[in-house]
Design goal:
Elements: E1 6-7, E2 11-15, H1 21-29, H2 44-59, E3 63-70, E4 76-87, E5 113-121, H3 130-145, E6 150-156, H4 160-169, E7 172-182, E8 188-197, H5 201-212
Parallel strand pairs: 5-6
Antiparallel strand pairs: 1-2, 2-3, 3-4, 4-5, 6-8, 7-8
Helix pairs in contact: 1-2, 3-5
Length: 213
């Protein structure tokens, strides 16, 4: 899947590389008080492993990982995010009524479903325009370049701050998957599931752009 840089006047999302290890580590270690429920690397070894795993997922066409850069005088690296968990649907033979389907992963076709995940920001960038601006770029790419039918967002069910942020973006709450996966704090977590579907995208985009001014 082709690497791409996404940017607007607030942020730039650069394809993740090993060169981002040190600036990401600085962003991750400034203040860890908000990372209790987020799997954010704690030291250089963990950050190298984090980046290498992300690049392996990209090589296997499972994700597009990015470094999140706040635009300004310093162009500061403030976190990371991915388009990930790509799905290519199997359609019934001879009964397809949707243009552009079916798609094939082995032919390089874009996925039917994607997820915004592995998203974290340094506390200096939290509660700013950075998250909304970055998510807007990813949503535009997912719905307008990939033409996905469904975009998934999920978080630890205990993470009320993250759940509220997803709701503000326009994510539709679908419910909670119980005992879904290991959590960042070492327990088995429930996962709050959200989605945005193609029919909602125009209104979601308008809402986010209005919020960003």
């Amino acid at each position: 899947m082709r690497r791409v840089t996404l940017e607007n006047r607030f942020v730039r999302l650069e394809p993740l590389t090993r060169e981002h290890v040190e600036p990401l580590l600085r962003a991750a270690c400034l203040d860890r008080s908000t990372f209790a429920l987020a799997p954010v690397p704690r030291d250089r070894a963990e950050m190298i492993d984090y980046v290498d795993r992300a690049l392996a997922d990209e090589e296997a066409a499972r994700a597009l990982p990015f470094a999140t850069i706040r635009r300004g005088a310093e162009n500061e690296v403030v976190g990371s995010v991915r388009l990930m968990s790509f799905e290519w649907w199997s359609w019934p033979t001879g009964a397809i009524h949707v243009a552009g389907e079916p798609r094939r992963a082995d032919a390089g076709d874009p996925p039917d479903v994607a997820e915004i995940g592995h998203a974290w920001l340094s506390p200096t960038a939290q509660r700013t325009t950075v998250n909304s601006a970055a998510c807007l770029l990813l949503l535009i790419h997912a719905f307008e370049a990939f033409r996905v039918h469904r975009l998934v967002l999920k978080t630890d069910a205990r993470n009320q701050r993250s759940r509220a942020a997803i709701g503000r973006l326009g994510g539709h709450f679908e419910g909670v998957l119980r005992a879904h996966q290991p959590a960042a704090d070492g327990v088995v977590r429930d996962t709050a599931m959200f989605s945005i579907v193609r029919s909602e995208w125009a209104a979601v985009r308008k809402r986010i752009e209005a919020a960003l001014g």
